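Q: How would the C-alpha cells look for this protein?
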Amino acid sequence: MIIRIIGTSRAIEIDDPKNFRAFSVRIEGTIGAEVQAELLRCVAVSSDHAHAWISEQALREWPSLKSEAWWQEGLSNMMAAVQKFGWIDQASQSIRAHIEYAP
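A: Here is the predicted structure in C-alpha cell form.
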C-alpha cells in the first residue's frame, strides 16, 4: 500500500491497499513544507524527511476501507510481520513508513 500525499489537490489517498508488503508514503508534486506537514499530520504521529510513523488508528479507520475484514486482517498481519524490525512504536501505536518524493 502506498499512502499518497498529493500536493496539487491537498489530498491523501491509498493506492494498492491489498499490497501490505509495499508500505510507504509518497509525497507527490511541488508542496511547501507547511502544507506537507499539515497533510502528514492527518495520517502520521511524527515524521522527518525520510520516514513517517503512520497512525494505526488512521489506517484502521480509513473511510473507504474500515468496514472491510480483509483490510483489518491485513493491517494486523503486516504489523505482526514488521514488529521484529522495530517498525512498530507501541507507545504511539504507529507503523514506520519510508517517504518517497515524486515530481
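Residues 2-102 form one domain.

The chain has one domain: 2-102.

Upvote if useful.
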